Structure prediction request, 885 residues.
Amino acid sequence: MRTEQPKMIKLTEYRLPDYLIDETHLTFELHENYALVHARLLMQRNPGLDETLPPLILDGQQLELVDVALDGRHLTAVEYQLSDSHLQVQPTHSSFEFTSTVRIEPQNNTALEGLYKSSGMFCTQCEAEGFRKITYYLDRPDVMSRFTTTIHAEKQRYPVLLSNGNPIAEGEGENGRHWMTWQDPFKKPAYLFAVVAGDLLRVDDSFITMSGREVALRIFVEPENIDKCQHAMDSLKNAMRWDEEVYGREYDLDIFMIVAVNDFNMGAMENKGLNIFNSSCVLAKAETATDAAHQRVEAVVAHEYFHNWSGNRVTCRDWFQLSLKEGFTVFRDSEFSADMNSRVVTRIEGVAYLRTHQFAEDAGPMAHPVRPEQYMEISNFYTLTIYEKGAEVVRMLHTLLGAETFRKGSDLYFERHDGQAVTCDDFIAAMESVSGMDLTQFKRWYSQAGTPQLSVSDSYDAATQTYQLHVKQSCPDTPEQRNKQPFVIPLSMALLNQQGESLPLQLHGESAAVLGERVLAVTEAEQSFSFIKVPEKPLPSLLRGFSAPVQLDYAYSRDDLLFLLQHDTDGFNRWEAGQQLALQVIEEVVGQLYETDEPMLDTRLVEVFSALLAQEDLDPAMLAEFIALPSTGYIIEQYEQADPLAIHQAREYVSNQLAFALKEPMLARYQALRKVSLQTPYVAQASDFARRRLQNMLLAYLMRTEDLEILDACVDQFGVADNMTERLAALACLVNSPFTDEAEHALASFAERFEDDPLVMDQWFSVQAAAALPDGLERVEHLLKHPAFSIKNPNKVRAVVGAFTQNTPNFHAIDGSGYAFLADKVIKLDALNPQMAARMLSPLTRWQRFDLHQQEMMQSQLQRVRGSGDLSADLFEVLEKSLAV
Ligand code: B3K
Ligand code: ZN
Prediction:
């Protein structure tokens, strides 16, 4: 809890560490009511600095100091200074040994940072600054040390004792206790440290690396989950092979371990050789996990594994550089997912997520650059901007340099900086070295916040066969920054003729044309590109594959969009044309709804959906993406000040109209797909994901018609399905339908069947919390009282409270009750888990995006949270920024 106002930490104030820690020797004595942590640190004055010996100031929070010594001499209370956050001692030699013993209470640690207990096991989470809750230390990523760790615990309760690196010794102790020692040969910052003690079973496998070394692979889980590890293990092996093939990166230890824990603030953590995962990102089998969950497991396993190079071998100098490891690693994992699944669909999903959520962050009070300049609480900066926009920045480099040169750059980066803690500038410098490009202007992507606007217009001169693209870029002011400078924007484009074929692209002054598509580098605030030998007025296909994280503005008519949806040769842009078309139609209905209860739907949308459904050769994965309307969240982001209730109503209206108009072809297609699903055993592979997604999407449309035969089909799918993807989708359809008896029955049978599986119950909670029917708040309040709910478990909080914030008509209820509910939960959470509290508050921080009425109600809830008492630094920072605007 906060005792004084948290202070701002600034990038410009970075200083090298005064001291270094060559070796770290830790001993944990784990007990039910406390743990003792003994630390022996072999330290030296930083040789890069002068020879004076300033005080040694170690980080430490919520620690009870039992003993402290320098070079074996125990210090008395007058020989050290202790505060809430630091321990200060005075070294007398340039090399010395610091030892300490502290007492902590892992069993009472509800913040899930440092050493804590989850479902009876001990585990740790140290990134970013959790290690200081375990022992006194220089808890900063540029202090890298060799760790040796011994864990003592009761053998029966905690037969498995793990830490980073390799096991080097073990033994039995007195009173039924045992111990084990692990040594990590690689220097690492404390944030990558981990310890686990528990009663776990493991799945074993192995991997032969490209140089022929055998690596033992182990996934540790609670005994009841032992049959849910195969997908994670397969994903791990695929990721290891992919990183060798695509990046030339080989794994470096003889053992790689993953441990699944139930209480975890985020997805997973890349601790060296010992990744700790939220169980939701490891456990997956057909009966209990959806296709989306399987894909998430694959992506997160790969992400954490990839960190072994992009994050661990080469780490961050300070936390301002967080995107150095996160942006790069997200780019790596999304390319891996694209290779394992459908490339276009992976990109579509990534972009939809980025535009809905990261663009919103960039437009809100927490907007910050990919490399922030200041923060109060670093935990608040594990954001969509650091991760997703950071990945887009790396993707743009990949586009500008080309795959081959980019690979040379990454090789050079890893080689130059192996074993070091470096900055985003070092990454860019490696890319400059291999490409010969000057990336100074490009680096504005790291320093300027906000989503750039790219406005494009064009003109065609038939007499000279010249076609001009006029491009203007600008970037809105953000809370801490005004007057942005132009970015380097890679604009991937093609010109289509009336048959939908790409025209050759020859810029004025060039001697030859480029076929297909090309990437224009937009570098000025205003710039024109002149194409010659263009035989007819073309239709431009712009920002193909979403080649830059910008808001594109080109005045496409609805007929242009229809044409692109049918003919564009870039799969992503086909989808995008459909989205923009649907968006225009929905926005039109929003306007009409203020005038009449009977709006008019542009029938061209129905016609094109109908044509797509009839197109036999269309990839089902693409068809599913094409017929998915833009999400409510995305539509809200298109308005300066949105009326969420009207937007929801309009989107519902359009969905219903499509369902009634296309019932027959949809039903025929649904039945055909369902038949295949019934005859095919579950396989977690892209083509099957696509079939089930399309099938479920059609079912959701069809259920809107309230036809009793379709209800029967839905109930049947719910009852008969051998996999969670079909079962949960059918459940969601029932829960959102007026057929309350069937819904209640399905919910009850689902709960009975899966009551012992917390991850499945999370899905049961979230389907109900997200149901956009009247009285949603009442239902959610009821869910909070369910015995399977616990506010201490982040997955449960996300499943109920998080899902409710996405429930537009209920969360944005006109009386403000949804906002008040969220504020109550945030206040309660802050006393237990500040990181979760700050994160859950974010929907309220976006108040500026909404109508004045909503704005006032959201702000007043923010004020109420601020006035609610002693707040954590995490929550304080988010509130200050949200209310300062
Ligand atoms: N590096 C961790 C995130 C840690 C978040 C700490 N609040 C997971 C990841 O990005 O791989
Ligand atoms: Zn990461």
